[in-house]
Each structure stands twice: as structure tokens, then as C-alpha cells.
Prior knowledge:
single chain
Amino acid sequence: xxxxxxxxxxxxxxxxxxxxxxxxxxxxxxxxxxxxxxxxxxxxxxxxxxxxxxxxxxxxxxxxxxxxxxxxxxxxxxxxxxxxxxxxxxxxxxxxxxxxxxxxxxxxxxxxxxxxxxxxxxxxxxxxxxxxxxxxxxxxxxxxxxxxxxxxxxxxxxxxxxxxxxxxxxxxxxxxxxxxxxxxxxxxxxxxxxxxxxxxxxxxxxxxxxxxxxxxxxxxxxxxxxxxxxxxxxxxxxxxxxxxxxxxxxxxxxxxxxxxxxxxxxxxxxxxxxxxxxxxxxxxxxxxxxxxxxxxxxxxxxxxxxxxxxxxxxxx
Length: 316
């Protein structure tokens, strides 16, 4: 089966949202994989900042409250950043059902992950999340027509071996909260696939707005019931910053999936472990073991091979 066409989202032609990020001309494929990979790496950094902030806030604020404010601030910031009132047509959606399902996939990913970071180190939670490329690569073929070759599969498996070297599940010291991370990983894999499916017909703006608003409304009853006043101005700033990290990160993720297939981008999720290890050390004094460094090297090597393979096939 041939891959689905790389048709860009149908943003308002007069004031397209994607003008805010320099991209190749619509319809052009020259350099698109490299741009998409670069955007993916930046999104991983923003998501790492989001997780580190959530872990810090969970020490004094209920995680459910953090999840709620993350999506409320996401929605409010998006309204003003994209000046929704000037381009109402961009919010039009052709696949309302899938948009709502995608929104709940994102909500569950965030909810389970914020619960997990209460108990686990950042490197542990992201390592478990790295199983998502298996689901993405396996399902992208039958669902999206994006069939990964044998060499990409080998690179993904090698990268996952690096993740196992980091987590060492055979040590018998894994916390019960890994269940939250596993559920977050499954939700995230479906979120990635739904993003790719919807990017063909939906505008970037509608995907960002719907995901934020649906999640915010769904969490409102719980968020209100567990609300406690943030203890300081710093906590207020960090709480509101979660929406910025999430909004910009997922906006970039949407654009990356416009430019390259999910099976190509999935391995580069592994690079997020570098950001997580750095933030874990700087913010929480989590000192990486030698196995973490070795596993990270394996992960990075697998990602770089995917990039090399993509460039080789393009030249061929």
C-alpha cells in the first residue's frame, strides 16, 4: 500500500497559522524531512520542560489541578496568540469525532504522565514512553499506509535496547507507578497516529484549539474540586507555563507530521531522554548512572542512523 499523500492542513489561506514558523513552501518536499526532524527535537525539549515543571509542582499541588490548568492556559494563550477572532474559518473541522478522540488521547497521556512523575524520575518515565514508537510503527502501516522498512525497525529495536539499559527492569526495583507511564505511553501512541491522520484534512489551529478546549472542559469538574491556592508567585508562573510548553510543543509536532511520515519521526522521540536527564540533574539532583549514559548513547546512535538512512534513500 502506498503512503497517504502529504497534503498540508487547510489553514485559512489569508492568514495561515504556519507562517509563524519558517517552513518549506507548501507542496515542496525539498528538505522537508530535515525540517520535520528539527521540529521534532524542539518539541521534545518543550515536552521535557513540561514534565519537569509538572514534577516540581506535584510536590505542593494536586496533579489533577496541574493537568486542568495546563489545558486551560493552553486554550487561553492559543486564542490570543493566533487571534482566533480574526480567522474563525480556520477553526472549521471536517472530522469532529476524530478531533474529540484525539483530544482525549492527549488528555489521558498528560494525566497518566503527571501522575507518574510524582513517584518516578524523569528519565524513568520518558524511558517507558519510548515504547510508543513500537505501536506507532506497527500501526502506521495498516492505518496510514506508512510501512517502515526492515532497517528502520532494526534501528527502533536497537534504540529501545538502549532504553532498557537505562531503566534496567530486570533489577526488580521498578516502582508500581510504572503502570501510569505504560498507560500514558499507549495513549500517546494513539495521539501520534491520530495527529498524522487529521493533519491531512484539518488545520493546525483547529487541532490545537480543539485539543485544548475539550481537555480543559473535561477536567474542569475535577480541577475545581481539588483546587488549592498555589503557595507562591513562582508556583503560579510555573503552573501557567505548562500551557505554553504544551501548546507550542504540540503545534510544532503537528507541523512536523505535515512534512514527514510518522514512521520516520517516531525514532527521534528517543532524543527526549537527553533533555530529561539534564533537567532531572539540574532541578531534582538526579545523578545519572553509567548505564544511563551508555543507554543514551545507544538511543542517539539509533536516531542518527534513521536520519542517515533517510538521506541515503533520498539520494538514491
